[in-house]
Design brief:
Number of strands: 0
Helix content: 55-70%
Shape: globular
Number of helices: 9
Radius of gyration: 21 Å
Distance between the termini: 39 Å
Length: 317
């Protein structure tokens, strides 16, 4: 019938989820493999990079409204080690480790699920669709894993700076937070976290997809060695840091022990701008830059290598 129109979505249906793709098509990764590989990569990565995350969070919580406790990155590390030993740099690791594994699992699982639908007939994912898939993955990980995990982590680190720390460990801390604030206490700053993680992964997967497509050219199955994967990952990580550090600062403030000072995410942003200036939105950028570049590089390297192993033992015809 003339005038009838068929809706065409932005994503294609996946042809298959096989480990091997015939006819020169790019290989598709089964979401199950992505979940497993992502979880393994996330666990290993956080054990390596946590000290820089600790320093970054401490500097962001060292608000200018009060007399600054730290004079910079080196001074923060020095005071922490002097006061709590080297183990002090790992305070809060347990809460982040428990959250990092499911976070990475959800991120890569959702990205591969969406990208399998978004790839064209040759199995190639263009940069724009890579950005959209990354956005979807970031929002999902924010809701299911990042927000509660980050809230607990920030409260743990902030608790250490108080005169009388009240959390004796991860499970005790979680019980106390839920007992005094309810389950809602683990979801402080959800809006800021969704904005941060959504933009974070959109930027990272956009850059990663663009670099991969540039390197592979007309051969979608061209292998990328781990070193190059790490370089691409570090580049994607750096781009995300400069793109959304202000959101990271707002998120950290909203999840700290003094979050009650802010009525909402917008109110937090307005107060930071009003009382501390634009520069406050970029506090902790240097330690975050180093951590994120290393973080993303490690995660992508481990993820890709684990997927290769899984492809040999887990056939998904």
């Amino acid at each position: 019938m003339e005038g009838n129109k068929t809706f065409v979505g932005p994503f294609h249906r996946p042809r298959c989820l096989a480990a091997a793709a015939p006819g020169g098509k790019a290989k598709l990764t089964h979401p199950g493999k992505a979940i497993l590989a992502g979880g393994i990569a996330g666990g290993i990565e956080i054990c390596i990079t946590f000290p820089t995350e600790y320093v970054k969070t401490q500097l962001q919580l060292d608000e200018r409204a009060n007399p600054p406790k730290y004079r910079g990155i080196g001074d923060c590390v020095k005071q922490t080690v002097q006061g709590h030993g080297v183990r002090g740099l790992y305070r809060g690791l347990s809460s982040l480790l428990y959250g990092s594994i499911p976070k990475s699992a959800v991120r890569f699982g959702m990205f591969e699920f969406l990208s399998n639908y978004a790839k064209d007939e040759s199995g190639r994912l263009d940069s724009t669709r890579g950005l959209l898939c990354g956005l979807g993955a970031g929002v999902m990980e924010a809701v299911l894993a990042v927000c509660p995990m980050e809230t607990i982590k920030v409260k743990f680190i902030h608790d250490q700076t108080s005169a009388n720390p009240k959390y004796r460990g991860f499970f005790h801390g979680v019980r106390e937070i839920i007992r005094t604030q309810g389950l809602r206490g683990t979801y402080q700053g959800l809006t800021a976290t969704v904005l941060k993680q959504g933009s974070n992964q959109a930027i990272r997967f956009y850059v990663m997809t663009s670099l991969r497509n540039w390197y592979k050219g007309d051969d979608p199955n061209k292998a990328i060695n781990p070193v190059l994967t790490g370089i691409f990952g570090a580049t994607a990580g750096a781009a995300s840091v400069f793109g959304n550090t202000p959101l990271d600062v707002i998120k950290t403030r909203m999840q700290g022990l003094e979050a009650h000072k802010y009525k909402s995410t917008l109110d937090c942003a307005v107060k930071i701008l009003k009382y501390e200036g634009v520069a406050a939105f970029y506090k902790g950028t240097v330690p975050r830059l180093g951590r994120v570049c290393l973080d993303v590089a490690i995660v992508f390297i481990i993820y890709e290598e684990v997927v290769k192993v899984l492809n040999t033992v887990w056939k998904t015809e």
